[in-house]
Fold:
Amino acid sequence: MSKPFCAFFLTQKIISFEFPDTRQGEAYFRDFILTLANDERFPEIPIGTVAGKDGWYSNLKKNYAKKFRFVSIQSIDIDEKSYIIPRIGNRENSENWIFRIHGFVVPHNHIELNSPEISKNGNEVLYELGRIINGHKLALPDIMIKREKGWLDERWNFSVEYGIRCTAIQKEDGIWRFNFYDRLYEKEMIRIIFENDEIGEEGNFYPHKQILDFHSDSFPEIGVYKIDSSDWNTSGLDKCLQIAHGVRIPKTDAIFLHYSKCLELWNVTKYCEQKEMDKLDAFEKSENFDGYLASVMYIAMFNDLRRLFAKVLSKVDSKEKLKEFLEKHGLEEMSGELMKMAALKFFDLST
Structure:
C-alpha cells in the first residue's frame, strides 16, 4: 500500500462550549484510517502560545490490542479493545516550569456537538513542560465501524476539540506567579500593551484591574494602557506586576523602581526599596562596597526613597566620602527632604 498523505489543519474559531479558556479550537486529522493502516504517527498540530510559552500542540495516540488490519473501507479488522487517545502537550523541557492548567481535549462528534458521552469541563492539573495531558479515550470500533455514532465526517476525517487555560506558573525558584500573558476573564482584566522597538520586544499583559486600581490611579477606567519605551522589557514588567499582586519575587532589580514610579504602584516601590536595603547589608563587607554604596545612593536620590537614602547615609563614615557621592550624582536629582537628610548627616560627620 502506498504511503498516505497525512494532511491536517487548525481552525482558530471559538467553539460554542462553556469553558472560559484562553486557547481553544479544533484540530483535524485527514486520512485518519490510512494513517492507522500504515501504522504511522499522527502529526503534532500546533495550538499556539499559552501563558507566554510557545510549543503547545495537539495529537493522537493509538493503542492496538492486536495488529490493525485494513483491507478496504468496507472490510476493517480491528480488536474491540483498541482505542485512540487525543492529547495536548508542550515539547519544551529546558525549563523546570510547572503550569496550573484547566484543560480538556476530546473527540469531536459530527452529529451532536455536545455528546453526552464526553465531558468538556476542564480538569485542573499541574503540568510540567515536556509531559502529556491525555484526553477522553475512544474505542476504535466506535469510530470506524459504527459510523452512525458520528466520530468521522463524510470524508472519513477525525477531529478533536481542545481547550487550555493556565491560571498560574511556578518557575525554578519554586514561587507561584500569576499568568498575565492571557486574558482569563473578560471584565476583571486591564490590557497593557508593551512595545520596545530597540530590542524588538512587544506583548500584551492582562493584570487584575481591581488590584492595580487599589494601588494606583494611573490606569484608565476602560480600554488599554500603552507603554512605548526603550527603558522597559517584558520580563521586568511581568515581575513588577507580580509584585503589585502580592507575589514575593526573591530577586529584584533597581529598574523595577523606575517601572513602579511610572505606573504609580507604590506597593512595588516599598517592596523593592526594602530589597535594596537588604542588599546593602549583604554587600557591606565586599571589597568594592564604596562603589556599590554610591550607586545605591543614586537609586535612592533618583526615585526619592527616603528609607533607602537614610540606610545609605548610615553606611557613610566620612564627610569627604559623602561630599564625593553627592557631587558625583548631582544635587539636582535630590528632593528637598533628601537634601535635609544629607545636610544633617554632613553636620554630624563634621562634629
